[in-house]
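// run 5 | inverse folding | seed 20
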């Protein structure tokens, strides 16, 4: 059984929010003390983790949206408009 589209979207938004909060916490924790300040490499890793996680979600969302497009209807309309231009 699949979840309704709005439930999937809410889950994706929740995951993006979680990734952002995790990133913010990691940066805040790594920059809160001068004695244990995070390295540039650690900052880059945190950002890469955020980017990879959100890119995967956005890519999946884009694929879902494109798959929902009724291509037959678009082609029919395109044929009608190009036919009427002649």
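// decoded
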């Amino acid at each position: 059984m699949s979840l309704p589209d709005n439930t999937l979207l809410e889950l994706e938004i929740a995951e993006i929010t979680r990734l952002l909060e995790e990133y913010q916490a990691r940066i805040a924790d790594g920059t809160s003390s001068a004695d244990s300040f995070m390295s540039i490499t650690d900052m880059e890793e945190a950002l890469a983790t955020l980017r990879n996680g959100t890119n995967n979600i956005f890519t999946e969302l884009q694929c879902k949206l494109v798959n929902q497009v009724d291509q037959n209807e678009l082609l029919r309309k395109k044929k009608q408009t190009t036919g009427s231009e002649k």
